[in-house]
Amino acid sequence: MSFYSAKVKDAEGVRREILREAESAADAAAQLRAEGCLVLDVEEAKGQGGMPGAWHPAWLLPMTGFDVEMGLRQAAAMLRSGVSLLAALETVSAQARRPRAARAWRRVHDAVLAGESFADALAGQKFGEIVVRLAGVGEKSGELDVALARAAEQLEARRALRSLVANALVYPVLAILMTAGVVTFLVVAVIPKIAAFLQASGGELPEMTRWLVEAADWTIKHGGSILVGLAVSVGAWLALRATRHGREIEDALLLRLPVAGNILRLSGTAVFARAMQTMCESGVSLLDSLGVAARLLANRRLRQRVETAHDEVMRGSPLAASLASAREFMPMLARMAAVGEVTGALAETFGETARFHEKMLAVAVKRFSVLIEPVMICITGGIVGFVYIAFFMAIFALAGA
After folding, report:
1. Residue 285 lies in a domain
2. Section 151-179 average pLDDT
3. Fewest CB atoms less than 10 Å from the CB: which of 106, 197, 302, 343?
């Protein structure tokens, strides 16, 4: 299958250029004629709109949430300006930055052209449940541009929150790996050579130096066993994590961590509140909103709490009471939900909750970064400094002997 660029006149006599995926130029022309277009010219597309005609390394790049977000914003802008949905989808496909994204939007266009609803076409390309639900609501209400804009805003908010959390958690992981690398280099390469030199010089080594040399010798001697133990531990952790119960246990423990757990709780609360605001503003029912919001949460324990709240609401319990038992979320969530239920303004109260916790998350991430950097510097510097002090003491002892 290749992509072909065709110049046509549509049923209204308007000249247009259309990208079409087909086996050959003749097949592409036949498809367009079947759609009522007068085909003027067909040629293989060569890199137009990020869609190379033949295989290209760019095809290895997956479609990301950012690609979906940009496509939704572009489609919403064109729909507001009076462009038809099919024409908007063609433009989004032609202007997509990655070939796979362009192909996905082209398939959505073809599905809509074949008679499917826009929401079903998006679902077929796995654009995400919140996008599908909002598109369906927009189709029924006649405000598809508004629904697509809200879906794009939701994707943008999720992307921003993920970026914040990732920046907070990646730095300490990298710092730990660098510290482990420095320690391994000292133990394997530096300490044995210096120890051999000092022992060959004769004399008694200070206790601090002897302890360091013995620790290095023991580590080298049992290095294979240590690596095997680490590999078995990681394998057991991955096997446990692959099970639903194991993942829930892991996610529950992560939420209990002193600093990182608070960041994860803030993030989960903000994601849930923002999703509920978007769905409620779009007219989605409360039960459907809870179902969609639950699937947006990466933490399984938080997702389980929302699913439990969904079941309790379905049995007739108030939303606030159902969320009050979910202590993994921040306490403000249930209180604001109670206010929203009484006033009938759930969307507004969820929006306020989301904005507050997004700001709190930004502050928490900044504080975490400020705290973790000096801690990791002290740990790394302490290890390296201990090694240097131990060997300088040995050199001074030998020099004075």
Report:
1. yes
2. 80
3. 343
In a domain, 312, yes or no: yes
Instruction: State the residue for tokens 């362009």.
Output: 102
Q: Could you tell me the CATH number of the domain that includes residue 343?
A: 1.20.81.30
Q: Which one is predicted more confidently, 3 or 104?
A: 104
Residue whose token pair is 């090694």: 387
Token pair belonging to 108: 């959505």
The continuous run of DSSP H or E covering 17 comes out as strand 15-22
Q: For residue 296, name the pLDDT band (cuts at 50, 70, 90).
A: confident
Number of continuous H segments (helices) and E segments (strands) in the chain: 17, 3
pLDDT at res. 202:
65
Given a contact cutoff of 8 angstroms between Cβ atoms, the answer to whether 94 and 102 are in contact is: yes
Distance CA 148, CA 133 (A): 10
How far, in whole angstroms, is CA 274 from its chain's centroid?
A: 16
Backbone angle region of 204, left / alpha / beta, with phi > 0 → left and psi within -120 to 50 → alpha = beta
> Side chain identity at 99, as an amino acid letter?
P
Q: How far is CA 177 from CA 35, 171, 183, 269, 401, in A?
A: 58, 10, 10, 30, 40
Percentage of the chain exceeding pLDDT 70: 90
Confidence of residue 333 (pLDDT cuts 50, 70, 90): very high
Task: Find residue 286's DSSP bridge partners.
Answer: none
Both structure tokens of 64: 């990301």
Q: What is the largest CA-CA distance in the chain?
A: 102
CA neighbours within 13 Å on the CB side: how many for 310?
Answer: 19
Name the residue range of residue 319's domain. 262-362
Count of structural domains within the chain:
2
Q: Is residue 40, in this structure, part of any structural domain at all?
A: yes
pLDDT digits (tens, 9 = 90+) for 195-215: 777 667 666 677 777 787 787
CB atoms within 10 A of CB 277: 27
Query: Which is nearest to 137 in space by CA: 150, 156, 124, 155?
Result: 150
Q: Is residue 39 part of a domain?
A: yes
DSSP 52-82: -SS--GGGGSPP-HHHHHHHHHHHHHHHHTT
